[in-house]
Amino acid sequence: MPGLAMGSRDLAEFQGVSPSLVAKLFTQLQKAGIVSSAEGIRGGFRLARSADEISVYDVVRALEGDKPLFQCREIRANCILYGDDPPASATRGVCSIHTVMLEAQERMFDALRGHTLATIAGDVDNKTTAKYAALKQQWFDNRDAERRVPARLRSKTKRNGT
Predict the structure, then answer these.
(1) What are the residues whose beta carbons fall under 8 Å from the beta carbon of 86, sequence distance 6 or more?
(2) Going by fewer Cβ within 10 Å, which terminus of the chain is more open, N or C?
(3) CA distances from 44 to 3, 40, 61, 128 (A)
């Protein structure tokens, strides 16, 4: 299991998003086997496999499920000219718009399969300055160190200003 476990609250705070949303997402990712969780003071979530083995498609499917991106409403039979009796030729086969949307969905899924968490992390790292990378690492190291201190001691430390 690569990497240290990170708390969902820490990740939410770092990215400036809702902690409850991040917790919900990580629960879904855990059910899908993308992350694993560890309990306790050093607990949190970590990738269940290496980042180069997890595609963006895997993550999207874990979070969105198997629902199609386009919901065809089959309006072909509703044409006013047909009344209540559309000809079979008008409704035969898959709707033309639905066909195009299914093709677009497959192309998008193929693109998502072509990228892994490792490729995204690499892209982010390539756009990040050394200063920012060091600050990011320091922030997470500080969070990790804080989590090692029992809560009862943390509150005393904060009150004493040390």
Answers:
(1) 76, 77, 79
(2) C
(3) 11, 8, 22, 25
Q: What is the pLDDT of residue 124?
A: 92
Interacting residues of 111 by C-beta distance below 8 A, sequence separation 6+: none
CATH code, 21: 1.10.10.10
8 A C-beta contact, residue 108 and residue 69: yes
Domain span at residue 101 reads 55-115
Any idea which residue has 């500080």 for tokens?
A: 142
153 occurs within a structural domain: no
Q: What is the pTM of this model?
A: 0.77
Ranking 14-28, 42-56, 144-158 by mean pLDDT, the lowest is: 144-158
For 9, phi then psi, to 5°, come to -65, -40
Residue 1 has pLDDT above 50, yes or no: no
Of 44, 43, 96, 40, nearest in space to 70 by CA: 96
